[in-house]
Design a protein that fits this description.
The complex is a heterodimer of chains A (about 350) and B (about 450).
Chain A: E1 2-6, H1 10-21, E2 26-31, E3 35-40, E4 47-53, H2 54-57, E5 64-66, E6 72-77, H3 78-85, E7 93-101, E8 104-117, H4 125-130, E9 150-165, H5 167-171, E10 183-186, H6 190-218, H7 220-232, E11 237-243, E12 248-253, E13 258-263, H8 278-283, H9 285-291, E14 300-306, H10 307-313, E15 322-328, E16 332-338, E17 349-355
Antiparallel strand pairs in A: 1-5, 1-7, 2-3, 2-6, 3-4, 4-17, 6-9, 7-8, 8-9, 10-15, 11-12, 11-14, 12-13, 15-16, 16-17
Helix pairs in contact in A: 1-3, 6-7, 6-10
Chain B: E1 2-8, H1 10-24, E2 29-34, E3 38-44, E4 50-57, H2 58-61, E5 64-69, E6 81-86, H3 87-94, E7 106-115, E8 123-130, E9 135-141, E10 143-144, E11 159-163, H4 165-172, E12 181-187, E13 190-196, E14 212-218, E15 224-226, E16 233-236, H5 237-250, E17 254-258, E18 265-271, E19 274-280, H6 295-305, H7 309-325, H8 349-352, H9 363-374, H10 388-392, H11 403-412, H12 420-431, H13 443-446
Antiparallel strand pairs in B: 1-5, 1-7, 2-3, 2-6, 3-4, 4-19, 6-10, 7-8, 8-9, 11-15, 11-17, 12-13, 12-16, 13-14, 17-18, 18-19
Helix pairs in contact in B: 1-3, 1-5, 4-5, 6-7, 7-9, 9-11
The chains are: A alpha+beta (about 350), B alpha+beta (about 450).
Chain lengths: ~350, ~450
């Protein structure tokens, strides 16, 4: 088993790992000849399946992979990887490889940074000048440092502990199967969507806290009912809905408030005709939804999702991707997140599976 | 009767505040030691593996400084004054007081302290003289104490490097946040800094293992780099970071000196009349080459010769292992073996009084151990064959100076006199290293003969 590669686009790689680590710590990383897959399946909340072509983050010419099963499966703490990748900022070369130390498998990241030092100026000499030799000890006359301006080279090695997963172990892991979506729509700017979502979530959680207190004071009988309702439904749920006429609605409702935000003029992207035959297209639920009028509530597909979890999902916005949201009414929301530059070509795609809570 | 009065100008107030912040990373209390020509602020961490001292020179740091003392005892320590204060209390006085743009910005800080044996009150009076005639007065309670100093022999420290703290900070920034220890070595023109964690990990939770980060830099990036090649030496990363952070604010260049692993390392720098010294215990593999009379042999001798010493080292080692699991460096055990090759480099004065009762780590359990320093507990293990584990222990036995031992006496035997005689006798004993004879009697049998009363 062998894996070794030079990194490229370390910024993208770093942002990718940051987005993944917001959902869960443990990540299954599958290295294949053409693609690298990242999968995070947390105990609770949204799971993400990412498929990145090798040349998006790795230097293809230096990419070496050897394995009996045509793939290397590793389990890694994705936040440690993300933290380690910070060392690649401003690096002149970075290499990632599989290795072993004391029979412990490791993913070793080796980074070379070169930066220009201006000799004496870069290293505070003012301190040196003021220095008084303490206790008559040696003055810095035996300086070995080269004080001239030159390029400073620093090698950084980050050794991240990993687990090698056997093919048998990962065989049982499958991407979820979902029914055909009722509505698919391209999401608006994620930054905007996230800030509004976060604001709604915050409002609902502070409001429900306040509500709980006021009820306790006013009506002792109702307070118990209110409290149980809150404890079962602790985290505020956002209602996200969309139709096939380019509209997306984000709403939250609690006992005390009801707010919603509507985007219109969004794109419902056409399905790729290569994948779906003509007559099958007409049977798709999304086509039926399209036939429903713009102002008809029946044309909307809804999901109820956890506000905090949604906020974590939207952290993928840092990669400024294009996101197609597929609504399966009252069941699930699937996000296809395409990294920029790969919209039509070889696809870097992250797929998020978000379950809908029942009302 | 002891009187200390001093005043500080605004820049020195800022420096004092920075120093207190740095001291607070090591201990809750700052030890204040006044002499005629300097004021020393120091802190020793709870595991006694790191000692930090700032010596502020009378002439260059203070606006005014006067210290007079008249003590009845004429010992060598009589011309000093020691006390300790909660750092939090001192810090709260200085917090946010240095904004020069306010009308009521601090213009001068005056401190006064009068100690009279007739008076029970221990108060440090601090006056902040601010703009618009505002004067803020504080009275802080201090505790009488005697100061411990870590002893470090600069002349023996053959390894030495000097670097800009900003450069060192760039190195430490690559380390993961959970990293606890820092290993340093040099190899063929490179200085290599590696972070690691000694936490014992559960075999199943591989993914929670810490990341090992190593940063290799060119020796030329140091102002000076004179270090034995391929010798690994490890210190607590938190202490190192504290030193870097403070040296950076003081705009000073750090010098590190050390001999070999398991001996202290000292980081020093000077700025504006203050000389800072961080004495930090190191760990690592003690190689025969580096330590001919190393603690390894010391331990063996102990268990054979010095009956009283052995059980305590065993017990303390257990403590140290626990401490390691808690993410701290282990406390240095009172090293009876050290007297074979002690680290005393500075004047005997520094040894005089190290019976700082309040510095004792949590009392009861330890005082029991101290008891057993003289009356061996029923521990058969001292007769056991050295097992492998114990042979590794010397790595964790930190070569602190004889202070730990003196502490032990303070804990159990000290009267209200600062216990000079007690300690002195101990120091003497330590000084006549080679001729030392291990105790053959229990302390209970010795009582009543004067010297130990």
């Amino acid at each position: 088993m062998r894996f070794r590669t030079q990194l490229k686009n370390t910024r993208t790689f770093s942002k990718l790992t940051a987005s993944l680590s917001s959902l869960g710590k443990v990540c299954w990383m599958r290295l294949e000849y053409d693609v690298v897959r990242f999968t995070v399946i947390p105990d609770q909340g949204t799971q993400v399946w990412a498929q990145i072509p090798v040349d998006t983050i790795f230097e293809e010419s230096s990419y070496q992979l050897e394995s009996n099963s045509d793939a290397v499966n590793i389990e890694i703490n994705i936040s440690l990887l993300n933290r380690a990748l910070r060392s690649t900022m401003g690096a002149s070369s970075s290499q990632l490889r599989l290795t072993k130390k004391d029979r412990m498998p490791l993913l070793a990241l080796t980074v070379l940074t070169t930066e220009w030092t201006e000799g004496n100026m870069a290293l505070a000499t003012d301190g040196l000048v003021e220095r008084r030799p303490a206790g008559g000890s040696a003055t810095p006359s035996d300086v070995v440092g080269d004080r001239r301006a030159r390029e400073r080279e620093t090698w950084i090695t980050q050794e991240i502990p990993i687990k090698i997963l056997h093919e048998d172990v990962v065989e049982s892991l499958h991407e979820p199967h979902c029914p055909d979506p009722d509505v698919y729509i391209i999401l608006p700017n994620l930054m905007q969507l996230k800030s509004i979502s976060d604001r709604f979530t915050k409002l609902a959680s502070t409001e429900s806290k306040g509500q709980q207190q006021s009820i306790t004071v006013a009506e002792p009988a109702a307070s118990t009912a209110g409290a149980t309702a809150l404890s079962t439904n602790a985290a505020p749920k956002l209602e996200l809905s969309a139709n096939m006429h380019g509209k997306l609605r984000l709403a939250i409702a609690t006992d005390g408030l009801r707010i919603s935000s509507v985007w219109s003029g969004l794109v419902n992207p056409p399905l790729d005709p290569a994948h779906i035959s003509e007559d099958r297209t007409s049977q798709l639920p999304s086509e039926r939804m399209r036939e429903t009028g713009d102002d008809d509530e029946a044309g909307w597909a809804r999901v109820r999702i956890d506000g905090k979890d949604w906020g974590r999902v939207l952290s993928v916005g840092r990669l400024s991707p294009k996101v197609v949201a597929c609504f399966i009414n009252n069941t699930a929301l699937v996000l296809y997140v395409y990294l920029p530059g790969t919209w039509n070509g070889e696809e870097s795609c992250l797929t998020y599976y978000i379950n809908s809570f029942t009302a | 009767m002891t009187t200390l009065s001093l005043s500080l100008a605004p820049p020195a107030i800022v420096r004092l505040h920075d120093m207190l912040i740095c001291l607070s990373k090591f201990s809750d209390t700052v030890a204040i030691e006044a002499e005629h020509d300097l004021l020393r602020l120091s802190a020793l961490n709870s595991s006694k593996t790191a000692f930090l001292s700032f010596a502020c020179a009378r002439e260059s740091f203070f606006e005014n400084y006067s210290f007079t003392t008249r003590q009845r005892s004429m010992g060598p320590g009589a011309d000093r004054f020691y006390c300790q204060i909660l750092i939090k209390a001192l810090l709260s006085i200085f917090r946010g007081r240095v904004d020069r743009h306010k009308d009521t910005a601090v213009e001068r800080c005056e401190m006064e302290l009068h100690e009279d044996s007739q008076q029970a009150e221990c108060r440090l009076a601090v006056k902040m003289i601010c703009g618009l005639g505002v004067i803020k007065s504080y009275k802080l309670t201090y505790e009488p104490a005697s100061i411990q100093h870590a002893v470090f022999d600069k002349s023996r420290a053959v390894n030495k490097w000097t670097a800009d703290p900003r450069f060192l900070k760039q190195i430490t920034e690559h380390f993961s946040l959970s990293a606890e220890q820092l290993d340093m070595y040099s190899d063929s023109g490179k200085a290599v800094f590696t972070s690691f964690t000694t936490k014992v990990m559960d075999g199943k939770e591989v993914l929670k293992y810490p990341v090992h980060t190593s940063v290799a830099t060119d020796k030329r990036d140091f102002e000076q780099f004179n270090v034995e090649d391929k010798m690994h030496i490890a210190i607590n990363l938190k202490d190192f970071k504290a030193a870097i952070a403070h040296a950076e604010t003081a705009n000073a260049t750090i010098t590190a000196r050390y001999t070999y692993p398991c001996k202290p390392l000292q980081l020093t720098y000077d700025f504006e009349g203050v000389s800072a010294e961080f004495t930090i215990m190191t760990r690592g593999e003690v190689d025969g080459d580096f330590a001919p009379a190393s603690s390894r042999s010391g331990i063996r001798e102990l268990s054979q010769r010095q009956t009283p010493g052995a059980p305590i080292s065993v017990q303390r080692d257990r403590v140290s292992r626990e401490a390691t699991q808690n993410g701290q460096m282990p406390p240095p055990p009172p090293p009876p073996g050290r007297s074979i090759k002690p680290l005393q480099g500075s004047s005997t004065q520094e040894h005089l009084s190290r019976s700082m009762a309040s510095e004792r780590p949590t009392a009861s359990s330890l005082s029991m151990e101290f008891d057993s320093l003289f009356v061996p507990a029923d521990d058969d293990r001292q007769w056991d064959e050295m097992n492998e584990e114990e042979e590794e222990e010397p790595q964790d036995i930190l070569g602190w100076d004889a202070s730990g031992r003196a502490d032990a006496f303070a804990a159990t035997l000290r009267d209200e006199e600062p216990g000079f005689s007690r300690n002195e006798s101990k120091t003497d004993e330590a000084e006549t290293e080679g001729m030392r004879i291990p105790p053959t009697q229990r302390i209970s049998q010795v009582r009543g003969f004067g010297i130990f009363d």
